[in-house]
Specification:
Blueprint: H1 2-16, E1 18-24, E2 27-32, E3 37-47, E4 50-67, E5 74-88, E6 96-98, E7 102-107, E8 112-130, H2 131-134, H3 141-151, E9 158-162, H4 165-174, H5 182-204, H6 214-225, H7 233-239, H8 244-255, H9 259-277, H10 282-288, H11 294-305, H12 309-316
Antiparallel strand pairs: 1-2, 2-3, 3-4, 4-8, 5-6, 5-7, 5-8, 7-9
Helix pairs in contact: 4-5, 9-11
């Protein structure tokens, strides 16, 4: 069982790095031993196959070691709202870095012969999922099999995905210190599954991409930086000396979007972040991301996220924000 594997992992951590503060309604709360760092770790067992870890203001360096504990079809998805973490699986490997712009997937399906980890001022969550247990009751086995094949790539122990404003919003909601009652247990579990559902939708929507050449990459960098400006495909093609048709085809092969759709996506992602993290009016946000007409902005936003900017703000923003 996945919880047995995690119990053994925590026992190992507690023998060196962690000190248990107290038991709580769904698990335990720990703090790092001063010798190895600082910060708190909260462990919550939501149901068989789903476990949540919340880490707060964690700065820690773990000694390189092997991790003999593993569980077939078990994955950890880490999401940050602040700070950085670094991990590698061989002393000569480059560090894989995670910040709030990324989701990091850890594959726990096999023993780990070398594990090196550190974090800096990290706030966020780790969601541990036994995908085999979660398969029970799922009728669309073909899509589920496709998902498992993508998640458990035989040649990858760890890989990163782009974190969306919705991922970061649900991460913040999962970090709220809820009162201990049955309704909040259901709320935590539903939020964990909502987080997973967005990860699944993003993952199944991915296509095989091509490594972009330098000019295509520079087009994307310009869009990322000047998304609020009036950008047009023909102008970008001329600026970077790329035939328009070649730009369109290679950009979509590299990034899964046409140039026009990527401009929209970039604007909507920035708008979503502003809706969740600022008190700016929807009109001001629409202007900030390049729309003089708030009505047109709202139409594009609803097409992209499935709900109006106002509903999106009410749904995903924390009450205390």
């Amino acid at each position: 069982m996945a919880d047995d594997i995690l119990n053994k992992s925590y026992e190992s951590l507690e023998s060196v790095y962690l000190q248990k503060i107290r038991n709580v309604w769904l698990g335990e709360i720990y703090e790092y031993s001063p010798r190895y760092g600082k910060g708190k770790i909260e462990r919550y067992m939501l149901e068989p196959g789903i476990e949540l870890t919340v880490f707060r203001q964690c700065t820690h360096e773990r000694l390189a070691e092997s991790l003999p504990y593993y569980q077939k079809n078990m994955i950890e998805i880490t999401s940050l709202v602040r700070g950085n973490l670094y991990v590698r699986y061989h002393p000569t490997d480059e560090w894989t870095r995670c910040d709030k712009q990324q989701l990091i997937y850890f594959n726990w399906s096999d023993p780990i012969t070398y594990y090196d980890f550190r974090c800096e001022q990290a706030d966020g969550i780790g969601l541990y999922l036994n995908m085999e247990l979660l398969t029970n009751g799922i009728s669309d086995s073909q899509s589920w099999t496709q998902l498992l094949q993508r998640l458990f790539k035989t040649n990858l122990r760890i890989f990163a995905r782009e974190s969306s404003p919705i991922h970061r919003s649900i991460t913040r909601q999962l970090m709220v210190p809820y009162e201990e009652n049955v309704m909040n247990h259901f709320l935590l579990k539903s939020k964990a599954l909502e987080f997973l559902s967005h990860c699944v939708n993003d993952e199944l929507g991915k296509e095989t991409t091509f490594y972009p050449d330098d000019r295509i990459r520079k087009v994307k960098e310009k869009i990322d930086m000047f998304y609020h400006s009036p950008l047009q495909v023909n102008q970008l093609a001329k600026e970077f000396n790329i035939p328009t048709l070649v730009l369109q085809n290679q950009f979509k092969q590299s990034y899964r979007y046409t140039v026009y759709r990527y401009i929209q996506k970039r604007r909507m992602d920035v708008a979503a972040e502003e809706l969740l993290t600022t008190d700016q009016s929807i009109t001001d946000i629409s202007i900030k991301v390049g729309y003089d007409n708030p009505s047109k902005f709202a139409t594009v936003f609803k097409k992209h996220y499935g709900e109006t900017p106002l509903h999106y703000r009410r749904k995903y923003r924390l009450p205390c924000s």
